[in-house]
Amino acid sequence: MAAMELRLPVPRKVVSQGLARGSDKHLVAPGDTITTDTGYMRGHGTYMGDEKLVASVAGAVERVNKLICVKALKTRYNGEVGDIVVGRITEVQQKRWKVETNARLDSVLLLSSMNLPGGELRRRSAEDELAMRDYLQEGDLISAEVQAVFSDGAVSLHTRSLKYGKLGQGVLVQVSPSLVKRQKTHFHDLPCGASVILGNNGFIWIYPTPEQKDEEAGGFVTNLEPVPLHDREVISRLRNCILALVAQKLMLYDTSILYCYEASLPHQIKDILKPEVMQEIVLETRHRLLELEG
Amino acid sequence: MASVVLSEAEKVYIVHGIQEDLRVDGRGCEDYRCTEVETDVVSNTSGSARVKLGHTDILVGVKAEMGTPKLEKPDEGYLEFFVDCSANATPEFEGRGGEELGTEIVNTLYRIFSNGSSIDLKSLCINPREHCWVLYVDVLLLECGGNLFDAISIAVKAALFNTRIPKVRVLEDDEGSKEIELSDDPYDCIRLNVDNVPCIITLSKIGCRHVVDATLQEEACSLASLLLSVTNRGTLTCMKKLGKGSLDPESIFEMMETGKKVGKTLHIALQKTLEKEESLGTTRQKVGFLG
Amino acid sequence: MPLDHRRVPGPEESQAPLLYAAPGEEEAAPGREAAALRPLLARAGLLSQAEGSAYVELSGGTKVLCAVRGPREAAEGRGRLLCEFRRAPFSSRGARPRPGPAAAARERELGLALQEALAPAVRLARYPRARLEVTALLLQDGGSALAAAISAAALALADAGVEMFDLVVGCGLCRAPGPAGAWLLQPSEAEERAAPARLTVALMPGLNQVAGLLGSGQGGPPESWARAVRLGLEGCQRLYPVLRRSLLRAAERRAAEGPRSTGSSA
């Protein structure tokens, strides 16, 4: 049955506003003086002008001892070694792939920093170089870890572990990197029946939980069998929940996603994206999260 | 058009989901995304409307100006369409990039309005062979998130509904020379009857099924789609195949049936929303671009 | 599309005399069988410099000449099919169209329709980094012009040796005026002018896939349009043998002339 939901727009409300504890954060706009004390050191997002430390981006002031930085609230991804990222191959070059990871510059995945079929300790031969497009081609998605950050800010990735590698069937959601909470692990098998990879770069991959662990993402043979309907429902619901959390600017991590998922259960999957439903379930999620924190 | 790149596996996932009538965002094959319509959003126009369909964002302004009727149709006014693909929507539109898409949209709009019944053009005539109203319909793409054509047609219809054309009188003196006088009461104006204005329903063929209101990702999985313009009574005024692929004859007939059904629902919903907005009048707070 | 600036566009205010013809003067078209097809004449490979060419004439007036250039190297990565549809300035019955953005936009729409009808048939994946240019020139418009152009373009592509899944055959239709007007196959110009609705279908006859569809007007409910599409597809199937034969005849002619390329090098 065809459904058509047409309505007049209503002003959006952000539920976390007002409740926010963000009031203790020192927020600045470009050009704002942060301090006139010359004893501090100039960090990212600031510059020195007339003995004053001035902000060059809009964001929150962060201070580590004598170092003052301004962290932009909305920005592209700034890579850090050890981050988990999800990225899309944009180009196959000699001995390396270019990967779009929402960073300022395309990231690089070297042929030598990935596991190839047939054992980890294998020399890369000329044949491997020729067969690069068989492993990964333009448009493919991968999960990887940041191996190094170059001086120009470009990121080098590696997939030298079975948990990284080419991604199969699933759904990608792109959010602002600032909304992904840093945690011990970014791979989560959620109890609701699907798994997510929360990339530090704001790319979030939702996929059906693989049955056998060893056959995981690392392989280059993608399973193209249809995903069962039940798994699809869970994945779609998770996707919409994540979008709802993002619309209301809540941090994304396993607990917040799971609570939001549970809060959304009374609603149909396609209704979650309606503004009033989004508000309702996010508000409920927030309450539960606050209770948890005590 | 704005395009996204997907991996093979992602496409397979989308296609299989459509096969089972569960799309990535939880919709069924014949569901639209939640749509918002607001009229009278910019004031220097005779009528305007803004439509948000998912991430697609369209602004339409109508300006009524006086001109001379076309020679072939001396007792009718006419509509002119313009589309601006601004680089705000996608960087691909920068420079001349959006021109091709713009021409395609304009041509489609002319096509769906080209039959005599969409708008009563005779009511736009002031005096035959000399003066008539010309409605300039300007379409601005603010954001492209899939299913442009449907969103544009909804916005055009809403803007025409909102259009108010000032009343003019033709005064004729004894020597037969005519003079035009504009009514000085701003509320003394004519409204257009938009009941017969069609809306576009684009059906994208994905796998063996077809869906309405495809997202950008779904459009990337579709090789061919069928564009239909449907009136509120379910008659078709335009049909057009889009895309690089071909269609099975049987699926075309199925798509036409779906288009008719969905089109009727769409018209009812749109009419209801427009009437509701009008009845609320000034009691409703305008949202505009601050929503 | 570049405008021809060298040509004097003529006085702004000139009109075709037909505009002043008394209404109803034209005699009504004689009643005809709805499914009757006009005889179609086709000839492939008549231009010497283009890679492929074809000429299609519908008896009653429509004359289309089509040429294919390429495949040749393109600046961009993927294979591209570019189609252009041009009307000769004197092709239509009424006033000579004034060159300008409006006329260019109309031609571009038909060019795009041509491209969308041909794209499913051409195996573009076999031509990476190459582009194919198809130009259709309408010499005289006697109705069903787009349909004739589609057929001619497909013939020209095949004549150029471009890899294709199937030929494409176009067929025009229009609805007779009146509330219960029937759909007529391959209308003449007069019928087309009077019609409340027009439709062009393009079929890949071997695969039975609809390659192109473009129609508008007051055609009534979907059932009526569906009837029209069915009738049109049937028409395409009936035109197919004629086009196929003309292509084979062109190939025969070539064979009789002897293998040109090898002949010259020997």
Question: Can you walk me through this structure?
Answer:
The complex is a heterotrimer of chains A (about 290), B (about 290) and C (about 270). By secondary structure, chain A is an alpha+beta fold. Helices cover about 20% and strands about 30% of the residues of chain A. Chain A has helices at about 15-20, 125-130, 130-135, 230-245, 255-265, 275-294, and strands at about 5, 25-30, 35, 40, 45-50, 50-55, 60-65, 65-70, 85-95, 95-100, 105-115, 140-150, 155-160, 165, 170-175, 185-190, 195-200, 205-210. In chain A, helix 4 (about 230-245) packs across helix 5 and helix 5 packs across helix 6 (about 275-294). The radius of gyration of chain A is 22 Å and the shape is flat. The model of chain A has no long low-confidence stretch (mean pLDDT about 85). The longest helix of chain B is centred in the last third of the chain and has 32 residues, at about 250-280. Chain B is built from five helices and 14 strands. In chain B, the strands form four sheets. In chain B, strands 1, 2, 3, 4, 5 and 6 form a six-stranded mixed β-sheet that branches. By secondary structure, chain B is of the alpha+beta class. Chain C is of the alpha+beta class and about 270 residues long. Chain C contains five helices and nine strands; from the N terminus they run ββββαβαββαββαα. A five-stranded mixed β-sheet of chain C has the order 1-2-3-5-4. In chain C, strands 7-6-8-9 form a four-stranded antiparallel β-sheet, sandwiched between helices. In chain C, strand 8 (about 195-205) and strand 9 form a beta hairpin. Mean pLDDT of chain C is about 80; it is low at about 260-265. The interface of A and B includes residues 9, 140, 239 and 274 of A. Strand 1 (about 5) of chain A pairs parallel with strand 1 (about 35-40) of chain B.
